[in-house]
Design brief:
Layout lengths: L1 H7 L4 H16 L3 H19 L4 H16 L3 H18 L5 H16 L3 H19 L4 H16 L3 H14 L4 H17 L3 H9 L2 H6 L8 H16 L3 H18 L5 H16 L3 H18 L2 H17 L3 H23 L3 H24 L3 H11 L1 H7 L21 H11 L9 H21 L1
Helix pairs in contact: 2-3, 3-4, 4-5, 5-6, 6-7, 6-8, 7-8, 8-9, 8-10, 9-10, 10-11, 10-13, 13-14, 13-15, 14-15, 15-16, 15-17, 16-17, 16-23, 17-18, 18-19, 19-20, 22-23
Length: 456
């Protein structure tokens, strides 16, 4: 590398090719931090050599944005995808496959960041372009269909997601790694539907699990996701020791290939915390949840934040601190309300399916409130869950702007805790090294809750 720079200077086509090759090589072996570094250098070279609006620069922008998604740097990913799309829309026809490719990446980003209506619109446009170009059974068409299926899986639209995934797997024209990804999605769907026999059959067909459950050398992002999903199956079927061992190994894999502020790291930590809560290891569970919540905040993942808060609520209840349990459950409910509002844009049927996946969160909180004699609050929680039914009764469409806007309210005792939590959540410049500060903030909130709980 140094010899090339000496011969050609900092910006040269051979230097660009070398940076690009190194970026791809490190991505292939799952060393994502180094991959990002070299892809950033490649983009910088391309901009100097070709200019900001060249087709090759667009290619480098998208390649780097893909790495930012893997690294959970979603703001940068969104910025770079849009720059790539803007260049391609200037240079290409509206139905060009390269435009579809960039739109697909943007749709995946929308799904990750819970922008469900935008994701569905984007995926439908992509599917239309690719199907017209390649036909319904082409390998790339099935990959695009999987994107839409995964969106539906994330919002509880299991019937449509299952139909799509089964159709994809019947085409039998994918590479083995792609088949593993599709089977993983179908298996996760069965776990969420509590169809454990069907889930086990699909998991057993996934080569990644069979080859790496005892050997954790394969650390690419898709394998890590598959292991996290398989651990959920193990947890729900009562195999807690096996799930704990798999999750601990997976966390080591994430530390070696990604970074310890990646969303999949948080997913694994929350699952581990749930096991520790059941086993009574509450201090350790609390440390894991602090970390998971921190990751959810910096990655702006509503679903992970909600899952961490629900686990916090379970931990507080296990610690006999019902007021803390109620407080964290209320924040989780308010995130649910925000997600329901986004899903409602997709139509009443999809909202109804999503509601089935979260109904237990509302009933659990209502029961906690009833147990403390806080009947009016309990009625409010049940009422906001039934809000969609009220609008249906008066024949208003779920697309109405006022639907699902109500939030769980906080009583006077809880307002200072909410203020502290929102202050913690709204700090935008957190870095992965700020965990000590985050621990202090969360511990302060819990300490205040503990004080108030004794005098309530």
């Amino acid at each position: 590398m140094n010899e090339c720079k000496r011969l050609y200077g900092e910006y040269h086509y051979d230097i660009l090719a070398l940076y690009s090759e190194l970026g791809e090589q490190y991505r292939f072996i799952s060393e994502y931090k180094k991959a990002v570094y070299y892809k950033e250098l490649a983009l910088n070279n391309s901009e100097h050599l070709y200019g900001d609006n060249h087709a090759y620069t667009a290619f480098k922008l998208q390649s780097l944005a893909d790495m930012y998604v893997i690294s959970a740097d979603y703001e940068k990913a969104d910025l770079f995808y849009r720059r790539a799309l803007k260049i391609r829309e200037k240079l290409l026809s509206p139905n060009d496959p390269l435009i579809a490719d960039t739109l697909r990446s943007i749709g995946i980003l929308y799904t990750i960041t819970s922008q469900y209506s935008k994701a569905e619109d984007t995926f439908r446009r992509v599917n239309s372009i690719i199907t017209d170009l390649l036909g319904p059974d082409h390998r790339l068409t099935t990959i695009c269909m999987n994107d839409l299926a995964l969106l539906y899986l994330s919002i509880g639209n299991y019937i449509d997601a299952e139909i799509m995934l089964q159709k994809i797997l019947k085409t039998n024209n994918q590479w083995q790694q792609e088949k593993d990804i599709f089977r993983n999605n179908l298996a996760l769907l069965y776990v969420k539907n509590k169809k454990y026999v069907e889930a086990e059959k699909e998991f057993k067909k996934i080569n990644t699990i069979m080859k790496t459950s005892n050997n954790m050398q394969n650390n690419d992002i898709n394998t890590i996701k598959i292991r996290n999903n398989y651990s959920e199956y193990l947890i729900q079927t009562g195999h807690l020791l096996a799930a704990e061992a798999l999750l601990n190994n997976n966390i080591k894999a994430i530390n070696s290939s990604l970074k310890n502020s990646h969303p999949e790291f948080a997913v694994g930590l929350i699952k581990l915390a749930r096991i520790l809560i059941v086993n009574g290891q509450l201090d350790k569970a609390s440390r894991y949840l602090n970390r998971a919540l921190f990751i959810a905040i910096i990655s702006k993942s509503q679903s992970i934040e909600k899952d961490a808060l629900l686990a916090y609520s379970m931990l507080a209840e296990k610690s006999n601190n019902v007021h803390a349990s109620i407080f964290f459950a209320k924040i989780a409910i308010n995130i649910n309300q925000s997600m329901r509002k986004e899903v409602s844009v997709l139509g009443k049927d999809k909202l109804w399916n999503f509601d089935k996946t979260i109904e237990e969160h509302y009933t659990r909180l209502a029961n906690l409130l009833i147990g403390q004699g806080r009947l009016a609050e309990s009625q409010q929680i049940l009422a906001i869950f039934k809000e969609e039914e009220l609008f249906e009764f008066i024949r208003r469409d779920a697309r109405s702007s006022g639907v699902l806007s109500t939030q769980a309210s906080f009583i006077s005792m809880e307002l200072p805790w909410e203020t502290e939590y929102l202050k913690f959540k709204n700090v935008r410049k957190y870095k992965s090294g700020d965990m000590f500060e985050v621990d202090n903030i969360l511990n302060k909130i819990i300490s205040e809750i503990n004080k108030e709980s004794f005098v309530f």
